[in-house]
Each structure stands twice: as structure tokens, then as C-alpha cells.
Amino acid sequence: MSDQIQKFTVTIDGKTVQVDPGTTILNAARMIGGNVVPPAMCYYSSLKGSGGKCRTCLVEVSKGSEKDPRPMPKLVASCSTTVMDGMEVKNKSSEKVLDARKGVVEFLLINHPLDCPVCDQAGECHLQDLAFEHGVGQSRYEFERRTFDKVDLGEYIKLHMTRCILCYRCVYTANQLTDNREHGVLKRGDAAEISTFIEKNLHNDFIGNVIDVCPVGALTDKTFRFRSRVWYTKPMDASCSCDKCSGNAVLWMIGDEIARVTARKDQYGEVKEFICNDCRFNKKEKSQWNIEGPRKISRHSVISANHYEREIPKHTVLLNKA
Ligand code: SF4
Ligand code: SF4
Ligand code: FES
């Protein structure tokens, strides 16, 4: 008898891939790549328990499996639904999905401030990208928006709760990367908020990573806040020898100065190697780093050239084409 695990075949927007049993639809889509990949605002592959909060990754299962080809009656969250052999899934090819995603974006923006012009996350914000690609131009919400004062979460981090989409990523990061659980989501429903437990400051060695995992501009780096729009900075891959973390980071330069330090992210905006607070907040001299070269920016950022494709109307004459 062969020990080889039988692979499942799944088709997403007409593209087929073979995956191990237990793979989620979202990860199967990521194995195909490109346009078939649903957006994900709360799922984060390296954080256990993440996913299932934001509903941006909804897809339509038009065929359940080879054995039971009935479609699933409702849209499902692709980050927490595993594939079956022979499953067929629709992402962007489903009107129902596109319509539902518009609703999800509208819902996420119900209380969201129009802060983009002053928000540090602008230019690399997943919510901006999501609203651009899947949102509608207006909201039907007529009630007063909930507002919060800004909160200092320790020495390095400031929380703008009004921008938070309650994805729980920072909570899982703090729980899984640091020694003490010091913050979490308090209350429920429209009263829910991220808060430090009994006014405790967040001061663990790896807590700065909550800034990187936050998909929006709710958790901001106090050493960089309001210093520059990200698209005016020049990202460089750099490394240093560090006894706490891998020391592999990205330096965001303004001229010769290091304006901020972040971890390196993949094409889905996920950090693969978390970095320590020392590397992130305290190494702002070029002499402390070995600079490897310019960073290639992932598709998840508007500062990535050609991120948004513009349809050129027919009959447009393109000038300057040598
Ligand atoms: S979090 Fe994103 S969408 Fe919200 S204000 Fe900041 S840049 Fe704009
Ligand atoms: S602060 Fe950011 S990471 Fe934390 S729950 Fe809110 S949106 Fe998610
Ligand atoms: S990414 Fe699936 S529910 Fe948020």
C-alpha cells in the first residue's frame, strides 16, 4: 500500500490545482495565485486561530465535491472552509460574491473615519485596496459614527480605535509572540474595542509586530507617525546581527535617513519573520545595518507600480509611444 497522501482537485474561477486534504479554499487559491485569490483582512497564515472574522474572503462553492456535487447553499468564508475532492469554487467570476463583498466593505466602513489623507497606513492599507477594488462609492449609513480618543499603548505604539476593523490579528500576535497577554477585545457588538487589560502598557520584546499585522492604520509606529507618506520613502532590504530575531527587515529611507523599520512581508502582506522591538524602533542608523538592495513592493500596496489596472477606453490614442 502506498503511503502517498491522496491529493484533492479543486477548481477556482476555472483554474485547477491539486492540494492536500485539509487545505482551505483560500490557501488553494493562493497556490494558483493572481486574480483567483480572495481578499483576506483577518486571516494571517502564521497566526493560529486567525480568520473567520471579517467575511471579505467569501466565495461561492458551485459544486461541493465529486461525490456530492450539490452547490453549497450560502457563500462561505474561504479562509476557514476546507476543500473537498472535485470542488468547484467561484471568486471573482460570481456575481453573488462581488455583490456580497460590496456589502462587507460597506459594513467595514460604517464607522470608519475619512482619515486617509492623514493616516500613516495610506498607500499600504488593505482596507483602501479593498474599498477601491470591491467597494461602492457611497454609504447608506445615516447614524452617528462611533468615535474614540487615541490611546497610547506603551512607548512605541499608538492606537486609533476609530480605524480598527476588529480583525483580532494584533490580539493573536500579542498572545502568540509575547510572554504575557496584555491586550484584547473588550465588550461585544458595536461596543467592541481593542484595549490593554486594566491600562497595562504593551512592552514585550516582539510587541511592535502588531503594527505590521494590522491591516489598517489603527496601530501606528510612534517613531514614524506623520513623518512621511509611505510613497515618498524608499524601501531597502537590510539585515543586522540580532540575538533576539532574524534581523531581516526593511528600512524605509528618506534620503540617507532611516525613517522606519518594518518586517519583510510577502505578496499577501503577511510577515514571514517577525522582528524584535530593538531592530524596529531603536536601530535607526545606517551603520547598524547591512543594506542588501531595493525592496520589491508586493501587489498589496498602492505604492507598487501598476497595482491598479486602468481600462483605456477604445479609440484612445496613446502618445509618446516610440
Ligand atoms: S486605515 Fe486605511 S482606509 Fe482607514 S483611514 Fe487609514 S488609510 Fe484610510
Ligand atoms: S487594531 Fe488592527 S490588528 Fe488589531 S483588531 Fe484592530 S484592525 Fe485588527
Ligand atoms: S479572511 Fe476570511 S473571514 Fe476574514
The shape is globular
Task: Give the helix tally.
Answer: 6
Question: What is the first-to-last residue Cα distance?
Answer: 63 Å
* Secondary-structure element string: EEHEEEHHEEHEEHEEEEHE
Main sheet: strands, sense, barrel: 5 strands, mixed
How much strand content do the residues show? 15-25%
Structural classification: alpha+beta
* Computed CA radius of gyration, to the nearest angstrom: 21 Å
According to CATH, what is the topology of the largest domain?
Answer: Alpha-Beta Plaits
Q: Tell me the total number of β-strands.
A: 14
* CATH structural class of the largest domain: Alpha Beta
pLDDT under 50 segments (min length 5)? 318-322
In which range does the helix fraction lie?
10-25%
The CATH architecture designation of the largest domain is: 2-Layer Sandwich
Number of discrete domains: 2
Give every kind of bound small molecule, once each.
Answer: iron/sulfur cluster, FE2/S2 (inorganic) cluster
Roughly what is the average pLDDT, rounded to an integer?
Answer: 88
Strand order of the largest sheet: 2-1-5-3-4
Describe the protein:
There is one protein chain. The strands form four sheets. Strands 2-1-5-3-4 form a five-stranded mixed sheet, sandwiched between helices. It is α+β, with helices and mostly antiparallel strands and 322 residues long. The chain has helices at 25-32, 95-108, 126-134, 169-177, 209-213, 277-282; strands spanning 8-12, 15-19, 58-63, 76-77, 87-90, 151-153, 157-159, 183-186, 193-196, 219-221, 234-239, 248-254, 257-262, 290-294. The protein has two domains: 8-105, Ubiquitin-like (UB roll) (Roll); 116-294, Alpha-Beta Plaits (2-Layer Sandwich). The longest helix is centred in the N-terminal third of the chain and has 14 residues, at 95-108. The protein has six helices and 14 strands. The chain is globular. Helix content is 16%, strand content 20%. FE2/S2 (inorganic) cluster binds next to loops. One iron/sulfur cluster is lined by residues 112, 115-116, 119, 121-122, 125, 127-128, 163, 216-217.
